[in-house]
Amino acid sequence: MSLLCSTIVFPLLILLLLSPVNGVGINYGTIGSNLPSPKKVAQLLQSTIIDKVKIYDTNPQILEAFSNTGIDLIVAVENSHVANLSAVQSAADEWFAARILPFIPATSIVAIAVGNEYLTTDNDDDKLDHNALVQAMQNLHSVLLARGLDRKIKVSTPHSMAVLASSFPPSSSTFATTLLPIMTSIVGFLADTGAPFMVNAYPYFAYRDNPGMVNLEYALLGNATGVRDPKGYVYTNMLDAQIDAIRSAVNALGFGNRTIKIMVSESGWPSKGDKGETAATTDNARTYNTRLVERAQSNKGTPMSPKNSIDIFVFALFNENKKQGGTSERNFGIFNGDGSKVYDVDLSCQFCSSNTNDKTGFSFGEKASLRGPSVWCVAKPHADEKVIQAVLDFCCGPGGVDCREIYENGDCFQPDKIHAHASYAMNAYYQMHGRNYWNCDFKGTGLVTFSDPSYGRCFYSQQ
């Protein structure tokens, strides 16, 4: 029978219009001799609120371990490989074919970070070739474009705050004069391709380097009194001020009318440091990262752009005992290599089924539960009805979904509305095919939700 189309039923409409809770990202570094296997890491993260992981290479064991987990990965081109990928596009294509292609789509790779703080990193006392960075990014994007993957996988590069001439006041911030040409090229590339501007933002270092001028509670994301910008913005924490400083610098390049999402690709606080690093304590690290996780989930913007939510990646998952530098560099982890907690941060996932782990951590000796059954796919409430009808026809036809429940006399027939019927079918298809984000795309009409859309006797399937 024909499935009628109209607007979505009121209860489901309310559900879909609710602001979603953002997931939390985390940086997974591997410069340690005592770290668990990637497979164990992937298993344990599935029972947490962590839904995005950034790594610093294309370690095949990690990429394989995260297959079919529902966790998105950002992979990286190491600084030492940037020049090679910039030379010719064929080099970028060979890199992609060898490092990435064998693992997708089972592993959800959503971005490639080209280098890390490349513009402010010295290599054997010689600065890295700035132009090579842009060319490598362009070459990789061209590879993705040729393979039809440019919408799924974005290309960007993480910057340190050192790319700014100054970061305060936020509204007056600009990029360093010597970096203006290269930053103009990079920001233009990000605007054209829809990729995020990645920034590694650490209030800890700002406080450590100038404790007499920076309020500790402000650096720890908790200064209720606020710091005022000359243009009227009020900042209750330094991280938001750092984000808006980047935003101002981007706008100063002439991109204020373009949509460029800012992502905090790293932020964290060490639990231990060398003499003089008095703020590197377990208590401060717990306070900062607890507030950072809450900030990541808040779906809030910043004073300068309150409607634009910020993706945040906590640094880091583990203490890395082989990392170079001072003591603090090896003690940014929330967990030790054996899986024990350095301190308590609540990463428990109320949406994850059969979650047997405690609220503050997990054990590598336990079998981690999967997050997937608690995630659903539904139709966007204002999606075009013609597209929704085509999606519905596909799901109930070639897509292989059993749609009897949305036929007349089925438990999900009422409300007899196109969006309601499509939501049921789209979710069934999504669950059947592994809950990868692209299985809920449906030409941009699908929406992943953590809230169960079931109602009455109509039950939406879970894998």
From TrEMBL:
Belongs to the glycosyl hydrolase 17 family. It comes from Nicotiana tabacum. The lineage of its organism: Eukaryota, Viridiplantae, Streptophyta, Embryophyta, Tracheophyta. Residues 375-460 form the X8 domain. This is glucan endo-1,3-beta-D-glucosidase. Its EC number is 3.2.1.39. It is an enzyme of class 3 (hydrolase). The keyword Transit peptide does not apply. Keywords: Disulfide bond, Glycosidase, Hydrolase, Secreted, Signal.
